[in-house]
Structure to design on (175 residues):
């Protein structure tokens, strides 16, 4: 797991240089048809094994084209006896309908959560984001499937599936 995490972090750190080079060679300053980086901040809530939790994440999205992005987000989950942290990595397929001041984006895709304890999981997520100028506000759902969910504090096996609902707040920045 450390090797995979190191590889993901190395790629994530090399991406800004590639995006900067791509943007500087693109006449007119638009990177809509090429690689670019964006960031977002998200929060989610859910219940797993009868325990409510809240989660916060900071994501970096590397767009290969307007319709596909590789997203890496560090997260921290807080819940009674279920606190964990880690990295979500996913591929998001997107549909964008965006004008200069208002727009909408729908996304869906698979991913994998690398987490502490026994909270690593494959997941599928989908959501809808509205853009108002440089501000993005959205919501979605993530369904996680744990391969080795472990046990709760009473020794009862935790469920293999968990669904969380999330809110997204994105800034107007492109890296």
């Amino acid at each position: 797991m450390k090797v995979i995490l190191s590889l993901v972090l190395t790629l994530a750190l090399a991406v800004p240089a590639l995006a900067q080079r791509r943007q500087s060679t693109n006449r007119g300053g638009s990177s809509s048809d090429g690689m670019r980086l964006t960031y977002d901040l998200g929060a989610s809530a859910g219940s797993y094994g009868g325990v409510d939790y809240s989660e916060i994440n900071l994501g970096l999205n590397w767009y290969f084209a307007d319709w596909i992005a590789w997203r890496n987000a560090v997260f921290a989950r807080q819940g009674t006896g279920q606190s964990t942290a880690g990295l979500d990595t996913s591929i998001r397929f997107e549909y964008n309908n965006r004008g200069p001041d208002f727009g909408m984006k729908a996304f869906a895709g698979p991913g994998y959560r690398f987490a502490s304890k026994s909270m690593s999981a494959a997941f599928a997520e989908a959501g809808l984001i509205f853009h108002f100028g440089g501000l993005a506000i959205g919501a979605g759902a993530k369904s996680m499937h744990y391969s080795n969910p472990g046990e709760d504090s009473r020794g009862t096996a935790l469920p293999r599936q968990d669904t969380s609902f999330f809110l997204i707040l994105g800034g107007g920045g492109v890296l």
The CA atoms of residues 20 and 73 lie 21 Å apart. The helical segments are 2-25. Residues 1-31 have pLDDT under 50 and may be disordered. The longest strand covers residues 51-65.
